[in-house]
Each structure stands twice: as structure tokens, then as C-alpha cells.
């Protein structure tokens, strides 16, 4: 679907050439944070913005400021943030569920099957909400109605000691349930796993692939 390709290209453009402080492949990172389900002309897409996202993004810019990035990471580190779109796509843009409609069904489910509803607007700090909301006009300008269909949801998933139970770089798993669709992340993100190579020509492959799509051989690490 062309719309899907455009959306992925948009987020890839935010992460133009460069590596994070953990030598993360930008392409692998983009693939790791997005999940999609399509059926005919309908599509649901979920983008996760882990804390590491901001370092990956900003390290690709010539005016990278580690102090500013650290302040931003501190602001977002207590939250799991997702951009979500759910709708019917057509040549004239399509129709998309509102934030209120998606809020009724969207839930986060941790590895122990504990269910978390999204935080209410008043539970999200205004500066954080402002930063994320500022991305929506950009999405709308670049993707039209599709971009305007994205809405942001925030979750808090911590243990009794206020420690995060979900981390992009630590072992674990969680799912986002949206209506009748499930989007599951196995952690750490594939972008943080050892790279895989085709044994035939030693070309680096997507870390989530098991076999080379060109030669059919099982990939090796």
C-alpha cells in the first residue's frame, strides 16, 4: 500500500543517516518501533516512541546537543508513548477514528497479562503533551488526512518500586490492543540485537529475518 510506504518513509526521514550512541542501525530502529495490520482498505498502525528514540533522532542532526537530548529523555522516561492511526484509506484520504473512539479500546498488556488503560489528558505533563502534539501538524502537512488521523497515547508501566517494567533495550515483551487487533513487541528491540548476515555474500540483513530473501539461506550472526 502506497500510504504505508509513505508513512514509513516519513519516519525514516526523521532518522536520516547516522547511528545512535549504541550503534543502532537507523533502518532497523524504524522497523522495530512500528507495527501495522491491514485488511482491504483498512489499516491500523502503531508507532512506539521509546526513550531511546530521541537520541537516535537528534544524533543524526549537525547541531546535536547532548544536554538538550538528556533533558528531553528525562521528560519522557516515565512514559510509554505511542502514535496510533485506525481507519479506512481511499484515494481522497479516508476516514479515521477519533482519539476518543480509540481511547475506549486501546490498552497496553504487559508480559504478565496485566492490562493498562491509557493515561488521561490531565495525567500527562503539559510540556510533554505539547512536544508530542507539535508532531501532528508535521504529519498532516506531509501525509494529509492520513497524518491528521494519528493520535498520541501515553501509558505508565512500573513496579512497586517505581521501576520501569518495559524497556527497549531489556528483555521482555508487551502488546498494544486496539479494538480487535493486537500489536506485540518482543524486547529488546530487534535493532539492539546482534546483526545478521547472509552466509553467501556477507551482506547485513534485517535482524528480524531468519532467511536471506535473495539466496534463501539461513542468516547467521
Give the distance, in angstroms, between the N- and C-terminal Cα atoms: 32 Å
Using only C-alpha atoms, the radius of gyration works out to: 18 Å
Query: What is the makeup of the main sheet?
Result: 5 strands, antiparallel
Question: Helicity level, as a percent range?
Answer: 25-40%
The count of domains is 2
Mean pLDDT: 81
Number of strands: 11
Q: Which regions are unreliable across 5 or more consecutive residues at pLDDT < 50?
A: 1-10, 12-21
The succession of helices and strands, N to C, reads: HHEEHHEEHEEHHHEEEEE
Global structural class: alpha+beta
- The percentage of residues in β strands lies in 15-25%
Shape: globular
- What's the total helix number? 8
Describe the structure in your own words.
The protein has 221 residues and is an alpha+beta fold. The protein folds into two domains: 2-188, no CATH class; 194-221, no CATH class. Helices cover 29% and strands 24% of the residues. The protein contains eight helices and eleven strands. It has helices at residues 2-14, 26-33, 52-58, 66-76, 99-103, 126-133, 135-143, 145-148, and strands at residues 34-39, 42-49, 80-88, 95-96, 107-110, 115-116, 151-155, 172-178, 181-187, 196-197, 204-205. The strands form three sheets. Strands 1, 2, 3, 4 and 7 form a five-stranded antiparallel β-sheet that branches. Strands 6-5-8-9 form a four-stranded antiparallel β-sheet, with no helix packed on it. α3 runs antiparallel to α4. The longest helix is centred in the N-terminal third of the chain and has 13 residues, at 2-14. Residues 1-10 and 12-21 have low confidence and may be disordered.
